Amino acid sequence: MNGPIDFQTTAWTQILRIGNVQEQESRKLLESLIHSYWRPVFSYIRRRGRDASTAEDLTQEFFANILERNTLGNIEREGGTFRSYLLQAIRNFLISQHRYDRAAKRDPGAPILAISNMDSAVEPATPMEADAEAEFDRAWALQIMELTLDSMRAEHEISDKLVAFTVFEHQLRHRLQTGKTPSRQDIASKFDLPLKKIDNILYRAKKVFRRHLNQTVSQTVTREEQIDEEIRGLRGVLGS
Questions:
Q1: Are 205 and 168 in contact (CB under 8 A)?
Q2: pTM recorded for the entire structure
Q3: pLDDT tens per residue, the chain (240 residues)?
Q4: What CA–CA distance (Å, rounded) separates 119 from 116?
Q5: Which of 162, 146, 143 is nearest to 154 (CA)?
Q6: Closest to 82 (Cα-Cα) out of 238, 230, 234
């Protein structure tokens, strides 16, 4: 397919509807968007040298600016991805001193959305754009993994196969955190399961995870062929 396609998914329809509905509904849509995608924006701002408190205020203001300007429809018209849109938008946002001043003066008692426990462990690096963009890409990739695991977990809860999900989640999180895949023997020992069962679980779970990953990524792109491109990018960032 060469043109924009209609992905009937919650996240994508939310993105395109923000600014085109009544204020109360727009706020709810924006809150959902922030819950899903605040981490890469926050991480980028931190890497540009802002402290955690300022980065939180700026993250709030950034998403409010998206709502006020109603710019999300441009993604569909231009055929881009939500990831590339967010990165360019946050670059432009921070360049604008006027917007920064507005964020600094924002009433802290009335945030758009209470985002508590932001990852203060993300230390600000030298305020160089390359460092910030690398941090954005990594935070984005990790968040896509989290959203995919959430979706996969929900399916396994319904099918009463949480043990299989837990085994796969353990393997994936270990690899993301350490860069190494735990041995089958270690996994079998941890969950007190025979090796053959571990092999079967992981074989099936990888297929299910790929399906959920495709679904998650499809919510952030405008063309079907972009799904594989985005997934290759995720793997490159995460080294998997």
A1: yes
A2: 0.81
A3: 344 434 444 455 666 666 565 666 666 767 777 788 899 999 999 898 888 888 888 888 888 777 677 666 566 656 678 898 889 889 988 888 455 565 555 555 555 555 655 544 444 444 455 589 999 999 999 999 999 999 999 999 988 889 999 999 999 999 999 999 999 999 999 999 999 999 999 999 999 999 999 999 988 887 888 999 999 999 999 987
A4: 9
A5: 162
A6: 230
